[in-house]
Amino acid sequence: MTNSDHYRALESLYATAPVNDFYHPVMTVSEGEAEIIIEAGLQHCHAAGGVHGSVYFKMLDDAAFFAANSLEPEVFVLTTSFTTYTTRPMSPGNMRAVGKVVNYNRSQFIAEAVVYDSEGREVGRGNGIFVRSKMKLADMAGYAG
What we know:
Elements: H1 3-15, H2 20-23, E1 26-30, E2 33-40, H3 53-69, E3 75-86, E4 93-104, E5 109-116, E6 122-136
Antiparallel strand pairs: 1-2, 2-4, 3-6, 4-5, 5-6
Protein name: PaaI family thioesterase
GO molecular function, one term: acyl-CoA hydrolase activity
InterPro entries: HotDog_dom_sf (IPR029069), PAAI_dom (IPR003736), Thioestr_dom (IPR006683)
């Protein structure tokens, strides 16, 4: 499998996750990077009308996670820790998260992500540590490799 095939298979796997039926994200993966776009609607808001922090977290974790998994072609990675910073409140609208691996070795990946609003302003950022699991990607439903 080529790297490009691996990236497309990760995108396919992500699209099959049942949780994404609520968010309807679109993801693009490349080497050490992932970008996720969603249209945040009223269903993603807290009682005061702003986009709920759980949406920020999901986008940041997913973007960083798949940036890490782009560098691991055999097994699914796992998030072992993730820190999120909400840097600006956001009303419903387009959200774009960009994740990048900043360091990796045999035992872990460290990745960062930033989420932007429709005007390109940073609204949140986060970083996490990801480790290799024993779950083979080729055995996972949705990984079209």
